[in-house]
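Translate sequence into structure tokens.
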Amino acid sequence: MPSLSPQQRNQLLKAFKDFEQRQWLFSEELQQEARNCTSGRPCRRFLPTRLTRVDQSEQDRKKLLSLSWHTVMPRWAARCELAHPGCAQEWRRKIAPLVYGGT
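Result follows.
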């Protein structure tokens, strides 16, 4: 299999970088549109609603973290391990302390 020339590699890297930037912009625009549509502001892409923002209580936060740690994470970890053995342990070591504060 022939390798790419430096010029071809640079073109390919630039194309990927441009695509990545467009994807991030699209994601940000989509999130803003979703916020608009759920809060009664002008909405083009989704079904408009008029939800009311309610701040999360400390009790709500603790319940959410508990459900996440005891229900969502074990299910995700099982799927993750099937695809990438060791990934759940790596996640718990590196990310869980940041998300769950050492739970």
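Note: The mean pLDDT is 90.
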